[in-house]
């Protein structure tokens, strides 16, 4: 079995819990409170800037030239394509102020940056994979389930359920399988642990947006 199949199985229960979260169920119905979505988009903008830095770090540490180039393209895509989506929502919902990163956003971005800078590069690649793969699966799930016309969150759904994003995710999965082949079983387990941890952090990010999480102090 390929490493990515094993990793997906290891994180599958968390993925299922993500699809049933109120944030995503209400996104499907188009009933999600705009304030919660605004909070999510503002935090996600902060997230994407750091995610792009993590991808750039991985690009610089990758062993194969093709992987260097792919991660550099992923880094560009996170800022150019996904940020464009956010810019549209910033305008649509009149988001002007820059908020500080929430505890969950900060925790997640620091986790990715730490792995990108300090972990074995294959583990760093595994840590960022849920950021691609979970979003694609959640995007597809929401797209298939959506019931409402004129969903205010349609652009978001279309981006993550779209073909362009699917192509990027396919490439990220392929690279992880390629690099996992040269890892020992113990290293592959460390990759899986990083994949599962990042999947949990995805759950926390959505949960924190729904609660509009604040710093206690
Ligand atoms: C928190 C989070 N994770 C992943 C993605 C998709 N790159 C995102 N936009 N935001």
TrEMBL record:
<comment type="similarity">
    <text>Belongs to the TenA family.</text>
</comment>
<comment type="function">
    <text>Catalyzes an amino-pyrimidine hydrolysis reaction at the C5' of the pyrimidine moiety of thiamine compounds, a reaction that is part of a thiamine salvage pathway.</text>
</comment>
<dbReference type="InterPro" id="IPR016084">
    <property type="entry name" value="Haem_Oase-like_multi-hlx"/>
</dbReference>
<keyword id="KW-0378">Hydrolase</keyword>
<feature type="domain" description="Thiaminase-2/PQQC">
    <location>
        <begin position="13"/>
        <end position="211"/>
    </location>
</feature>
<comment type="pathway">
    <text>Cofactor biosynthesis; thiamine diphosphate biosynthesis.</text>
</comment>
<keyword id="KW-0784">Thiamine biosynthesis</keyword>
<dbReference type="InterPro" id="IPR027574">
    <property type="entry name" value="Thiaminase_II"/>
</dbReference>
<dbReference type="InterPro" id="IPR004305">
    <property type="entry name" value="Thiaminase-2/PQQC"/>
</dbReference>
<dbReference type="InterPro" id="IPR050967">
    <property type="entry name" value="Thiamine_Salvage_TenA"/>
</dbReference>
<protein>
    <recommendedName>
        <fullName>Aminopyrimidine aminohydrolase</fullName>
        <ecNumber>3.5.99.2</ecNumber>
    </recommendedName>
</protein>
<dbReference type="GO" id="GO:0050334">
    <property type="term" value="F:thiaminase activity"/>
</dbReference>
<dbReference type="Pfam" id="PF03070">
    <property type="entry name" value="TENA_THI-4"/>
</dbReference>
């Amino acid at each position: 079995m390929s490493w990515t199949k094993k990793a997906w199985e290891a994180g599958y229960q968390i993925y299922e819990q993500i699809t049933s979260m109120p944030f995503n169920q209400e996104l499907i119905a188009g009933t999600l409170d705009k304030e919660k979505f605004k909070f999510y988009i503002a935090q996600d903008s902060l997230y994407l800037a750091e995610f792009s830095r993590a991808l750039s770090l991985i690009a610089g540490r990758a062993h194969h030239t093709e992987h260097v180039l792919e991660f550099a393209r992923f880094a560009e895509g996170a800022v150019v394509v996904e940020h464009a989506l956010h810019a549209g929502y910033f305008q649509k919902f009149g988001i002007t102020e820059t908020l500080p990163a929430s505890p969950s956003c900060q925790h997640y971005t620091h986790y990715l940056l730490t792995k990108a800078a300090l972990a074995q590069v294959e583990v760093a690649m595994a840590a960022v994979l849920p950021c691609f793969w979970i979003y694609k699966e959640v995007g597809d799930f929401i797209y298939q389930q959506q019931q409402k016309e004129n969903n205010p969150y349609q652009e978001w759904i279309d981006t993550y359920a779209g073909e362009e994003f699917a192509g990027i995710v396919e490439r990220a999965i392929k690279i992880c399988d390629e690099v996992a082949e040269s890892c020992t079983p113990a290293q592959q387990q460390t990759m899986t642990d990083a994949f599962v941890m990042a999947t949990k952090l995805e759950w926390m990010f959505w949960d924190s947006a729904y609660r509009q999480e604040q710093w206690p102090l």
